[in-house]
Predict the 3D structure of the following.
Amino acid sequence: MINLSPGPAPLPKAVMTAFSKSISNSDLIHLSHRSERSQAFILSLKTRVRQALNLSDQYEVLFLSGSSRESTQRIFRDLESCGKGIDHYVTGYWSNWASTQSQKTHTPAYVHVCLNETIDGIFLENNHALPVIADVTSCIFTTEFQSQAAIWYASGQKIFSMAGFSLCIVDKHHIDSSMSLCQYMVSNSSCVTPPIYGMILLDHFLEWLEYQGGIKWLSVQTQKRSAAIYSILEKKEVSLVSPGKRSATSIVFHGKSPEQNRIWIEQMLANNVVGFKNHSAVGGMRIMNLPGLEQGAFDKLLCLLEALA
């Protein structure tokens, strides 16, 4: 089966194999999160994230339970409780949803963006006058960000871990002592019991990423694969996102008619390709070009795309 699901999405087989072998023998899932062993693991995982993303000391790495939606709401509540309003740069479905979660303000202190819109197939990384809060759920670790942010956050189920676990990276200069995120910062993400399964899975993902060559390697692979997919689609009668806005991890397109969309989706299902149908909010088709798409599956996918008529 070729799984193009946007999330939960498949992780690299090597990551899942390592996770399966380690989890049955791991003492971490049975120990108190305040134990010396657990605290050492959390610190080690923070260091690994820092190294992978090349973060400066001004950033703190936090491990949270919950989805990216919950992270969005948590961050907005924290900032608004300190009197800091939020503006929104709306580029698609998820940034539009986020814009409904904050109070209206005429004096924003931050701007929220969704760098990669999975439903719309749009990637935009623009400079903004205000400090940025960025949802990077579907592009983190796959690209080297060209701009800085006050807060980055991502749920784990698309790229680096599992559902129910989120990564949050905050600039310490933007965290007030009254904010809930500050409690995570000063407690080593241990103010509540942390999502240890998701964290162990992230650790194995980062180990795999380091072995492969880090973000530089994954960024190159992601761009090469997306270029190959777009090249095939450009030869067909489909509607694509304009080149300057195209996502490398979420490739969205529409056939010349709803009937063609239906036929192509059925053809892919007949060839054991799942997740090809895009979200109902936009329609059309979608190819998730994520790290868990193994090379053999990717090669077969290209052949199937070529055969679509």
User: Anything to note?
Assistant: Residues 13-212 form a domain with the Aspartate Aminotransferase; domain 2 fold (CATH 3.40.640.10).
